From TrEMBL:
UniProt entry keywords in alphabetical sequence: Acyltransferase, Fatty acid biosynthesis, Fatty acid metabolism, Lipid biosynthesis, Lipid metabolism, Multifunctional enzyme, Transferase
Protein's recorded name: Ketoacyl-ACP synthase III
Pathway: Lipid metabolism
Family that this chain belongs to: Belongs to the thiolase-like superfamily. FabH family.
Annotated Beta-ketoacyl-[acyl-carrier-protein] synthase III C-terminal domain residues: 261-348
Length: 351
């Protein structure tokens, strides 16, 4: 007897970003407020990073609050409600609970239940990972509208005395609604990882270390000192800055060019460049090495918001559109890179 053939959803030609929303921490922390513990200055921070202030959440504001605000902003702009969503993806590395996922909690809060929901842990590349998956879900016919959120409350992981990364960090959430399109509005994603360099950006303690401490078992040392490990304070982030800088500058220009090639375009076709807001010096170096046309619009949200990891690309996009520096229909190259190490890039048509 002939076996029956399984039914499949009807695929569609393309997907596109329908709207982008954002939510930033309401407290702007200037450089002068943080320079004391790291023995630095406003001038040094601006010269090395381009940051003037960083947005941090007010007391009592949670990572869920940031995500929900950004989600509702994006849905309003798209003319949709939570009930119109077929999936919710949340990219984050600062949700303290291993389970349940932040995505399921946000899905309920925005009225999108019973849409499937899950978290993506790819740090600064997380938003581009989410866009890649949303694009695939829509084009496969599995979903009509997908919400992608990049959200971080980095201030929960800050060590005021740390000179490697903490002074860069801000809080915020960016969200994009991805829906069907008669023509492709999201190009193929060029992405990857390199776990051999996982120690380049790292968490000072694992959650398992706390359990070992409770049980009186030895706690393995991290690149931090034995004294710091023994204190078992809330884990914070660290990075080997020069190593990260060299990796990005040596590797990401090629990833960017490959994403443009995969979209069937030339560099001169790109109107807007939106890199992860890691450091203004990195952005400037990427511009020189990739060799865009001279009038390209560049996302520089880091100057006032700081580095918000998975939220940085959608927040930079939201600012460019809101302030009129970019407009709907512009062709943008977005590229995320960071802890993992992980990276992803794709060309998108702005909403």
């Amino acid at each position: 007897m002939t076996k029956p053939t399984l039914a499949q959803p009807t695929p569609v030609l393309g997907s596109r970003i329908l709207a982008v929303g954002g939510s930033r921490g309401s407290e702007l922390v200037p450089n002068d407020d943080i320079v004391g513990p790291i023995n630095s200055s406003d001038e040094w921070i601006q010269q090395r990073t381009g940051i003037r202030t960083r947005a941090r959440a007010a007391t009592g504001v949670t990572i869920k609050d940031l995500a929900v605000d950004a989600a509702n902003d994006a849905l309003d702009k798209a003319g949709l409600t939570g009930s119109d969503l077929d999936a919710v993806l949340v990219s984050t590395v600062t949700h303290f609970e291993q389970t349940p996922s932040l995505a399921t909690i946000v899905t309920d809060a925005i009225g999108a239940t019973p849409a499937p929901a899950y978290d993506v842990s790819a740090a600064c590349a997380g938003y581009c990972y989410g866009i890649a998956q949303a694009d695939a879900l829509v084009r496969a016919g599995t979903a009509e509208n997908v919400l992608v959120i990049g959200v971080e409350k980095m201030s929960d992981f800050i060590d005021p005395t740390d000179r490697t990364i903490s002074f860069l960090l801000g809080d915020g959430a960016g969200a994009a609604v991805v829906g069907r399109s008669d023509t492709p509005g999201i190009g193929p994603t060029v992405w990857g990882s390199d776990g051999s360099q996982s120690s380049v950006i790292y968490q000072t303690h694992s959650w398992l270390d706390y359990r070992r401490e409770e049980l009186g078992e030895p706690v393995p040392e991290t690149p931090e000192t034995a004294e710091e490990v023994s204190q078992m304070t809330t884990p914070t982030l660290r990075q080997l800055g020069p190593t990260v800088f060299k990796w990005v500058i040596s590797s990401m220009p090629n990833i960017a060019r490959r994403a443009v090639d995969a979209a069937g375009l030339q560099l001169e076709d790109i109107d807007v460049f939106i890199p992860h807001q890691a450091n203004m010096r990195i952005t400037d170096q990427l511009l020189k090495l990739i060799k865009f046309r001279e009038d390209i619009v560049v996302g520089r949200d880091i100057a006032d918001t700081g580095n918000t990891s998975a939220a940085s690309i959608p927040l930079a996009t939201e600012r460019l559109l809101r302030e009129g520096q970019a407009k709907g229909g512009d062709i943008a190259l977005q590229i995320g890179f960071g802890a993992g190490l992980a990276y992803a890039a794709q060309v998108v048509v702005l909403p």
